[in-house]
Specification:
This protein is of the alpha+beta class. About 20% of the residues lie in helices and about 20% in strands. The longest helix is centred in the middle third of the chain and has 21 residues.
Length: about 500
């Protein structure tokens, strides 16, 4: 996209594109929601009003950078890249320290030597987005992706892609990724414009057509996979920051940048995705006041004018829930806390498998049932989403995700289901799964809620706990303890 011919200051973005901005103009007011009870847009600042950076958060608890060599036992779902990121080292350092012949081959139980964190410079303090602008929460309900894309006139409006057996338009792909990962579509659109110009440019650069987000991986070609990757990285930074496990960011050129304790989770999400796309100099520009933040403002208005916070009230508590299976039918507690969607969206989910059923993918003969009363607002591609507050939106209040539900006999959108009533049959449909099971997760106002901790999953009095390792945990009740395990032994089963 070329710079506009005007007297406004020009901000050069890391991608090499430019945009023209008048930072004294009144910030645009987003469209109001058309349903009673949905939060309305806050008033924009008056024309020419001073832009005040939000007050820094209280110092955030961060992991201490390691000065000594550590040992790590490889868990299911680990990759060398994720381990390197968690420990603040490079993949190359792990390969060298462990003399690995193939960085893509790890075995569960393998012990890795992890060298000390080098401890790069601390990133400068600058808030990019409020937390509520990263999440697909209440204030995204009134945002029409297709209309916005049409108003911008870019390549996104004419793009089409086949996913499975269905053709999707560009805006429909943005909507699907935003819904599945629960990431604000505005953030996805801004990142897409930053990286490829697809939102505003009707004839974007040829080298963006296969990888419009700029993550050049043959397994991630096409808009859907590019945006899904980006949404996962946004979530990863957001939820690791909230959990206090993000010491910083590993930049593409191998530099580790220590996170500033004054930022917030929404900013951490943006910093994290850009770290996987840029070298150190580009990244510092991208996370500053002249990078992603400026482009976002130009597209949607000053982001902190759009804040709807806190997303999670201080007195929030989980509504009463029961176990997700019928009376008298034992189920294996097969997976402790792990990501709600993809690999980055908190450790929000638990897994269950009906007793005695075969290993592998099939449609189970047993029923998963509702954990609470609520309206079905999504039933597609293996996913069933139940809205517990009944307003018909999955961006507001408590929602429950029942994943891998077979299409056969699955509940439909618009059904009102009471606790204990049937949802569907576990299968491998939707997402990535090697065996039929029920994947269960919760959100509140669009934010994934960890299955353990202050708002632990509680069902029929059983409380979820985590061991600190992915998929590993226990359900505790009245002195009883059931450990997560795929071994299908009686001691690993729960029953109503």
């Amino acid at each position: 996209m070329a710079a506009q011919a005007c007297n406004f200051p020009i901000t050069t973005l890391p991608s090499g594109q430019s945009i023209a901005l008048d930072l004294g103009d009144e910030a645009p007011i987003a469209a109001e929601a058309d349903k009673e009870g949905v939060s309305q847009a806050p008033q924009a600042r008056a024309p020419g009003a001073e832009v005040i950076e939000p007050t820094p958060d209280a110092p955030h608890a961060q992991p201490t950078l390691r000065a000594e060599t550590s040992q790590y036992v490889v868990q299911f779902g680990d990759t060398l890249g994720l381990i390197a990121e968690d420990f603040g080292v490079t993949v190359e350092q792990l390969v060298t320290a462990n003399q690995l012949a193939n960085a893509n081959q790890l075995e569960v139980g393998q012990v890795l030597t992890v060298p000390p964190t080098s401890g790069g410079d601390q990133t400068v303090y600058f808030k990019i987005l409020p937390d509520s602008e990263l999440v697909n929460g209440p204030f995204t309900i009134s945002f029409d992706i297709a209309e916005f894309a049409k108003s911008q006139g870019g390549y996104l409006t004419v793009y089409q892609e086949q996913i499975g057996e269905t053709f999707y338009s560009g805006p429909a792909i943005v909507q699907r990724v935003a819904t599945e990962y629960s990431v604000n579509p505005r953030v996805l659109l801004a990142l897409l414009e930053l990286q490829s110009g697809w939102v505003r440019d009707s004839n974007p650069r040829t080298n963006t057509l296969q990888f419009p987000i700029g993550f050049a991986d043959s397994r991630r070609a096409g808009l859907y996979r590019q945006l899904a990757w980006a949404a996962d990285r946004l979530n990863d930074g957001y939820y690791r920051w909230k959990a206090g496990t993000a010491a910083g960011w590993l930049i593409t050129d191998g530099e580790f940048v220590t996170a500033n304790s004054g930022i917030n989770a929404g900013t951490a999400g943006v910093q994290n995705v850009l770290a996987s796309l840029y070298n150190a100099n580009q990244w510092r520009n991208g996370v500053s006041a002249t990078g992603f933040f400026t482009l976002y403002w130009d597209l949607f208005g000053y982001p902190f004018d759009l804040a709807q916070e806190p997303l999670l009230p201080s007195d929030l508590s989980q509504p009463r829930m029961q176990l997700p299976f019928e009376n008298g039918v034992p189920w294996v507690y097969s997976g402790g806390p792990h990501s709600g969607w993809g690999s980055g969206s908190a450790w929000a989910a638990l897994d269950f498998v009906a007793r005695g059923e075969q290993i592998g993918c099939y449609t189970s003969g047993e029923w998963a049932v509702a954990v609470a009363d609520g309206l079905i607002v999504r039933s597609d591609k293996g996913a069933v989403v139940q809205d517990l507050d009944g307003d018909g939106y999955e961006q507001t209040g408590w929602t429950v995700l029942y994943m891998h539900m077979a299409e056969y006999e699955r509940v439909q959108v618009g059904d009102y289901v009471q606790a204990g009533e049937r949802i569907g049959h576990p299968s491998c449909e939707g997402g990535v799964s090697s065996a039929s099971h029920l994947h269960l997760a919760r959100r509140y106002n669009g934010e994934w809620i960890p299955a353990f901790g202050e708002l632990s999953f509680v069902m029929d009095g059983w409380i979820s706990e985590s061991s600190g390792s992915l998929y590993d945990g226990r359900m505790q009740k009245d002195g009883l303890s059931v450990e997560a395990c795929e071994c299908r032994a009686p001691e690993n089963m729960l029953q109503r």
